[in-house]
Design goal:
Layout lengths: L1 E3 L6 E2 L6 E4 L3 H12 L4 E4 L11 E3 L5 E3 L5 E2 L3 H9 L6 E6 L1 E5 L2 E4 L3 H5 L6 H14 L13 H9 L1 H16 L8 H13 L7 E6 L2 H15 L3 E4 L3 E7 L2 E7 L2 E4 L3 E3 L3 H7 L10 H8 L4 E11 L8 E4 L8 E4 L13 E9 L4 H4 L2 H15 L8 E14 L19 E3 L12 H27 L1
Parallel strand pairs: 1-12, 2-15, 3-4, 3-16, 4-12, 9-18, 16-22
Antiparallel strand pairs: 5-6, 7-11, 8-11, 9-10, 13-14, 14-15, 17-20, 17-21, 18-19, 19-20
Length: 464
């Protein structure tokens, strides 16, 4: 069933459940699927009016829906592919060869195949060869733990040399992580190189997957399955506090309603989860240290400008930006992956920037973001005119990218907290891989299995 939260402040939900999940992104939904499949009763609390988290969609007219933030899947994203199969929608998956490129010194260079690397004019021939060999050398690393003490900068310079780093990698790291660029761990970059390599054909071209109907189609099927299993999804209900006592977690307050619970999974960013832990009344002695640890993971926000154009900007799907004067780190022309006819012939473009939430661009109004961006788009695509843009949208995410540093496992929160019955699962714990819907599904199901095991063990101890 799907309901909205109701009730007066401090009132108590009348129906107890085995597990309460805070957050209806893919992590929370997948955990609920695992738990409900094992016969456990689950209530999901979500502040947004829709499910999906960062994969949620919005209306672009005439019943068409589009993700707020761009998504695709690699051939190595087996968790997501298996989820589609289990929901009976694998026939909607489509594989597409895509073109990637780099914007550098006011020029666009293709980097979709090995020959493209050899034609990459900003580097001398010797360094082009080094760049081509870099991914092969990276794959020789047998285990990510070999790289955990190193920064991405140190590792990439050792693989390809200083000039390759300065031209290709440094601008990408600075564009993505800003002031944190020199602190990013080598494990983060190693994962990126492995993912990209695993999605390429023998000829070197990249194959990516997208689902007909977008993430909305998958979320709709997943929600229907959950509701058929009895999962209660309360949208439009903001979690206000997670309460603990001497025995462990005791309740969740959301939308003014207090939900008694002895098993709670939080799927927000750790800092938000720390803020939920109740500061009043009886409190578990482990809470202060838990709040300190959960608050130790730094995040960047994201601003995503979405354009609905009447013609395409280019033939490139994913354009990395290696120009520090361009305000975005990536230009993703979605309709070079998906068919523009599915959007009434519109050409959809995402312009993405990771940044602190106090940055000027993040603080601008939607109209200001659009006007600010226009001359930069014109510089990148000289033929572009604002008349091409039929509509635009601006989406912001306060917690979009955890900063993965060397020795990240020392600060990464464990899924099972030192408070009985309290769990945390989210993108900050996707490691050594980087965040993504595939790993949200994987880690959500892992968390669901863990909670189910704890419930079974507790029942066994009571029976004994």
């Amino acid at each position: 069933m799907s309901t909205e939260a109701a009730g007066s402040a401090g009132s108590t939900a009348t129906t107890p459940v085995d597990v309460i999940i805070v957050g209806a992104g893919f992590t929370g939904l997948s955990a609920a699927l695992e738990l409900a499949s094992q016969g456990r009763s689950v209530r999901i609390i979500e502040c947004e009016p829709v499910v999906g988290g960062l994969a949620a969609s919005f209306d672009i007219g005439e019943g068409k829906r589009l993700e707020r933030f761009y998504h695709h899947w690699f051939s190595s994203d087996t968790e997501m592919i298996r989820l589609c199969e289990s929901l009976g929608i694998s026939h909607l998956l489509e594989a597409r060869e895509t073109r990637t490129g780099v914007y550098y010194a006011n020029s666009v260079y293709r980097l979709s195949a090995p020959l493209d690397v050899l034609r990459f004019a900003p580097l001398p021939l010797r360094d082009r060869i080094r760049l081509g060999l870099l991914a092969l050398r990276a794959r020789r690393v047998k285990h990510w733990r070999e790289l955990e003490p190193r920064t991405a900068r140190e590792w990439l310079v050792s693989l390809g040399g200083r000039r390759v780093y300065d031209v290709v990698w440094r601008p990408l790291l600075e564009g993505k992580f800003g002031k944190y660029a020199d602190q990013v761990g080598a494990t983060w970059m190693w994962t990126k190189l492995h993912l990209r390599g695993g999605s390429r054909t023998r000829s070197g071209k990249e194959t990516l997957y997208y689902i007909k109907g977008g993430s909305e189609a998958l979320l709709t099927a997943l929600r229907r399955r959950l509701e058929s299993l009895g999962v209660e999804i309360r949208t439009g209900a903001t979690a206000e506090a997670v309460h603990t006592d001497g025995a462990g977690v005791s309740a969740v307050t959301a939308g003014g309603v207090r939900h008694p619970a002895r098993q709670v999974l939080i799927t927000t960013a750790p800092r938000l989860a720390a803020a939920l832990l109740d500061h009043e009344g009886a409190q578990h002695p482990a809470v202060p240290e838990l709040q300190r640890r959960w608050s130790a993971v730094d995040y960047l926000g994201n601003v995503c400008l979405v354009l609905e154009n009447n013609r395409k900007l280019s033939d490139t799907y994913w354009l990395n930006v290696n120009d520090p004067d361009f305000p975005y780190v990536g230009v993703i022309e979605h309709t070079n992956l998906d068919n523009p006819e599915r959007y009434d012939g519109k050409h959809v473009v995402y312009l993405s920037k990771y940044l602190p939430t106090d940055a000027e661009l993040y603080q601008m109004s939607d109209e200001e973001v659009f006007e600010y961006s226009l001359p930069h788009i014109k510089r990148m695509f000289p033929g572009f005119d604002r008349s091409w843009v039929q509509r635009f949208h601006v989406w912001r995410a306060e917690y979009a990218q955890p900063v993965i540093t060397p020795h990240y496992t020392r600060v990464m929160p464990p899924v099972e907290a030192h408070v009985k019955g309290l769990y945390l699962a989210g993108m900050a714990q996707v490691f050594p891989e980087d965040r993504g819907t595939n790993y949200a599904v994987r880690d959500g199901r892992r968390a669901g299995r863990l909670i189910a095991d704890r419930l079974t063990a507790a029942a066994g101890s009571h029976d004994a």
